[in-house]
Amino acid sequence: MAAAFQPLLPPHTIPPPNPLERKPVRFPRKNGSVSALLRDTISLTSWLLLGALLQGIGCLILGPRAILPTILILAYRLTDHLLMTFNLTRNRYLDNVLLTKGSPQLPFPNGTFGAEPSRDQIVVFHLGVRSHHPLGFLAPGMKGIVDSFDRMMREMHADPETAGLLGLSTFLKQEQAAGNELLSIFYLRDYKALHRFAYGDSHMKGVKYFRKITETCPHIGIFHETFVVPRGHWEAIYINSEPTGLGDTWFPVRSGDGREEEKSQVEVEVEVAEKEKQKDKEENGERVFIRPLVEAGTGILRSKTGRLSVERMEEMRQYDEMIGNMKI
């Protein structure tokens, strides 16, 4: 029997906000930054010209002293990065990097991993928006779109377990000098979760708002793409990378579920005690989330063929072919 996959990251426990009241909890996620979106509103040359204008105004008012803050900030940043480059100080850019080879695999409800790659289906949903306007995301109508998106996010993050949301990644396209499209990638448990999201109150309000402004704001473009990926038909690998994409998802887990194996009396007693402990935690509102990243440097996860379960896919193809050729 193949050994179970080994997780790369420990579980994350979220204490209850109020021990006397059990409420849905948000899974841990990084706060997004608006700096990239703001930077993309106008081109780099326009930002440089704007900076030059402000510096020129400063020099007119304060004289040569106005350039002193610029020199000091640049000197600090240059020194800081040179120290990191020559390993004299800690490289902050490696803080959240996993210096190994990892692959995302779906955990069992008890937080353990089996030995079967891509053992269940996943749903990937792309939602994108772009402003074809000189003002970019400051264009007319865009505030309503952004507000609608924020409402959707708040609704899903308020109770990700019920919503079926596993994670979300946001990317900014880089084809144009400015005004690129913004893409959000949702990872969901199943199609039912996506269906609930599509017909949820916040999403339907967003759809109605967009239909309302379509004629007056033709510069706003939106799109979505849906991928319902069957078991055994998806794979991913991350080498010396921060958790990202499917690897940056969170799965709610609990003790005492999963497959039963033959255990000694002592192990049974320990397991019963752990179940009682976990039950108390859940009654108090404490939740545990786990990331899907597991060690992929050895075993079946080393290759794309293994991660995709190609042998099982071939068996399914042959079976479908055989059934298709049968005369009924």
TrEMBL record:
Pfam families: Monooxy_af470-like
Biased amino acid composition, Pro residues: 8-19
Location of region: Disordered: 1-26
Protein known as: Uncharacterized protein
Species for this entry: Penicillium oxalicum (strain 114-2 / CGMCC 5302)
Organism lineage: Eukaryota, Fungi, Dikarya, Ascomycota, Pezizomycotina
